[in-house]
Amino acid sequence: MAQEIVQELPPAALTEAQIATDSGRNRGLKIAMWIGIGLLGALGWTMLAVVRGETVNAIWFVFAGVASYLIAYRFYSRFIEKRIAKPDDNRATPAEYKANGKDYVATHRNVLFGHHFAAIAGAGPLVGPVLAAQWGFLPGTIWIIAGVIFAGAVQDYLVMFFSTRRGGRSIGQMARDQLGRIGGTAAIIATLVIMVIIVAILSLVVVNALAESPWGVFSVGMTIPIALFMGVYLRWIRPGRITEISIIGFVLLMAAIIAGGWVGGTDWGVALFTLDKVALAWFIAIYGFVAAVLPVWLLLAPRDYLSTFMKIGVIVLLAAAVLIVNPIVQAPAVSQFASTEVNPVVAGNIFPFLFVTIACGALSGFHALIASGTTPKMVQKERQTRFIGFGGMLMESFVALMALVAAVTLDQGIYFAMNSSAAATGGTVQGAVDWVMGLGLTGVDVTPEMLTSAAQSVGEESIVSRTGGAPTLAMGLANILKDLFGGTAMMGFWYHFAIMFEALFILTAVDAGTRVARFMLQDAFGNFIPKFRDNSWRLGVWISTAIMVAAWGAILLMGVTDPLGGINTLFPLFGIANQLLAAIALAVVMAIVAAKQNFKYLWIVAAPLAFVAVVTITGSFYKIFSPVPQVGYFANHFKYRDALAAGDTSLGEPAAMEAIVRNTLVQGVLSILFVTLAIIVIITAVVAVIRSYRLGKVVDTEDPVVPSRIFGAAGFIATPTERKIQAEWDALPESLRSDAARH
């Protein structure tokens, strides 16, 4: 009887011939279109890197970036799909054969793209490029675009695909399966510890953005009940109506944003939604726990999908404003700080610290945790991993590119006044002017009136030493959008809108990160207590979630209660730790490709692994061994320790100096731990590759094949053949459909 039901179902996948037919439609028109895109991209790159001239228009960033992304997605990602991934949509994904209605839930590809993009796009693509602008616009632009195409998107796609083939296992558990006990244990420890620090730092950025902001607290808070409604609507009220709920969700989100501005202007709104940092930290920790244990379809997926509307919408709006307003780039192509080590914004040489600073905008190890965490447990069909993994990372890179544009189109005097430390500027307008003018910047003439006027235009008392990147991005975004909507009078609105946008942008990485951390801990515990690997075991879910939330929540509370901002001292670790995670992920992927005996195309993974390993290990060694206090953790540690011992308080108050001594020691020890673990994983991966080559036969660690009984299109827009097959599935009686096909 079961066999008869299977025979009655429409196809679960397109045949190779059908895929080729869809791909070959309108061939002549497509060839002409891709030639046009290629020429437009070449023009953009030529104007940025070759011609330049006295002024550079920001429009060329959009042309160069978008054309490069489109070409990479169409050609390079398909090449990887064909030569390495080789997906089979007749094969069920974990979301189908492990479906439990909580973590394993087959999700519509566009909703899942929204969840995945919202989860991976945190502080990195917003803040990193802004800080990297100190080296000029060209180095950052090249790495953001080239790095994502040949490293970041490759990692995200292949980690997601290989995790999907292995039941949604975490990158740490895949490392243990592929590299053995030593390499796997090192990878599990590294991913767990780094994940705790990353989620804590992301949470701190959200707290700082929302503290004392009733508008932001109300609007961001309203996304939770809206997401719950969307989840219930899509699950029970109108199953499968993606377009319908998308429109409803977007309207409700816009209403929440507009209402937030009004609520923030009322006395009762200020009293109710003005929260201090400690209260916000507790709320975020509680939210992280709840979001990690609730069924993924109820809160996490719809909230992330909802957030993606705003994330992508604002970035597309910024890109459109650049095309219309045509702002002029104020930063040089390569600045004078490219050849110095002690710099006003980010200390260290351009190599390796440009790559470490930009981080998530081009390559992010955090993404590997998401791509082997929530997302592979929700993928409908294997072919969708290219759209979600590779495409999602390209979109994040575009976010980073637009953040860079916002920074480099700002007046350079304002940029360096905002991003130089209070120790350098004294925290005063005149001190900032003296500091910036003393940097010897070509063509920069900043005055006290300029800085005061800039602060007043966005409704702030001061913009001096507003470090961290987020305020600079808000200023740059407001500077461009006000020329499109409202003029100077709207600067304040756009500035505070951007601050709220950044908080919403980052919070989605916190809730997804907590859920992924829970998966990772369950996998780790499962090596000793197998029942923990059962994601349906509620007690195990609660215990694992509580441990991870307690870990990052404790660090978060330490940061918000320390008057020196204790966790802020860990932020420099974020970039290096994140890139070391990427090296670990690429090493695991390389070992998997080698185990499949696919040595001909191993370079696709080995090349970015070699580059990121050199970059991050070099960066780690600088941070550990550099004798320059501004660069080396231990050099700074000994400088302040010796000053305290000698009774020299010229470097600051004794309490502050003691905190620096303590924090730099923690930074240095963690740096040693992270780089050691990463080196162990990389070495064991190389050994595994050599072993696979000598063995000469495929070693398979994938889950057994289960035939699929659901259907889903591969890309954002279904092809004609996919629409035809989907119509056949939609015409089936409800009793014959798999429950997974409804979500």
UniProtKB/TrEMBL annotation:
Annotated membrane topology: Multi-pass membrane protein
Compartment(s) where it occurs, according to its Swiss-Prot or TrEMBL record: Cell membrane
Keywords: Cell membrane, Membrane, Transmembrane, Transmembrane helix, Transport
Record-annotated membrane-spanning stretches: 31-51, 57-76, 117-136, 142-162, 182-207, 213-233, 245-264, 279-300, 312-330, 350-375, 387-410, 493-510, 539-558, 570-594, 601-622, 669-690
Sequence ranges assigned to domain CstA N-terminal in this UniProt record: 57-618
Major localization listed first in the record, in broad terms: membrane
Keyword Cell cycle: no
Highest taxon listed in the record's lineage: Bacteria
Family from the record: Belongs to the peptide transporter carbon starvation (CstA) (TC 2.A.114) family.
Protein name: Carbon starvation protein A
Source organism (scientific name): Leucobacter coleopterorum
